[in-house]
Amino acid sequence: MLKPKTRDEIASAYISEPWWYDLRGFFILTFAYNSTLTSQLRFFSPNFGEKHLEVACGTGTMLELVLRWRRWKKLPESQITGIDYAESMLAGAIKRFSKETSVDLQHADAAALPFADNTFDTANIANSIHCFPDVDGALLDIHRTLKPGGTLAANVLLYPRTPWPFNGFAERINNWGIRKGILYTPYEQAAIRQKIVNSGFKVLSETVSGNCYNILCCKQ
What domain range includes position 96? Predict the structure, then answer.
């Protein structure tokens, strides 16, 4: 059994050039998540309210793609706050969005958000819940900062469930990620769903694709 890393160890594991982080992320998306970028864009893009919180935004690559998708679809603009605990990743996002007045980026822990109660209309956690050492604390604090009726969209890496040989590839990548410190743990669907419900959310929709669990829920 591999021992997961602490919050600071995980943050230090993300000290790398943004291009390497993005390349590594695409490899993990394809072979560990067994998901596609298009499916993620379709899942996360609709969940942007007037005031939106992007949790664990990393270098901002996924957020930038989602915003381009939304503009292509002529969806309304949002005032976006992005947070990340890994300062090196956040630096990449700050550079990426330096000319975007609608995007505010802050160094923060998902389990100790520096925002008032009932601040945001929507929140997304893209490719990150399974990297949180304190997932229960993060879900509770995101719930706190959402307005009543606000929605959270998240995807979660599951233990490999795809057939051989893909499950073997995914398991090796996951074990490497835990050793490296960029992954805390995958989940069983029922276990992470229960954590989300225990945090006060009502599940609106959920699907499983490959080794990836997509869930949309709202603050009751």
Answer: 7-219
Q: How many domains does one find in the chain?
A: 1
Helix locations, 32-165, DSSP H = 37-44, 61-72, 87-96, 135-145
Q: How far apart are CA 139 and CA 35, in angstroms?
A: 23
Predicted TM-score (pTM) of this structure: 0.86
Strands 212-219 and 146-157: antiparallel
Cα dist from 7 to 2, 75, 184, whole Å: 16, 35, 9
114 upstream amide cis, omega within 30 of 0: no
Q: Tell the residue number behind the tokens 């604090």, with chain if given.
A: 141
Between CA 59 and CA 199 the distance in angstroms is 27
Each residue of 161-179: pLDDT tens digit? 766 666 766 677 666 666 6
Q: Which two tokens stand for residue 104?
A: 């505010």
Distance CA(52)–CA(132), nearest Å, equals 20
What tokens appear for 76 in the block? Answer: 């309304």
8 Å CB contact between 94 and 18: no
Residue 163: CATH number of its domain: 3.40.50.150
Q: Measured between alpha carbons, how far is 31 from 169 in angstroms, rounded to an integer?
A: 7
Query: Of 16-30, 40-54, 145-159, which gets the smallest average pLDDT?
Result: 16-30
Indicate whether 2 belongs to any domain: no
Q: Using CB atoms within 10 A of its CB, is residue 86 exposed (0-12), middle (13-18) or buried (19+)?
A: buried
The tokens describing 106, both together, are 């802050």
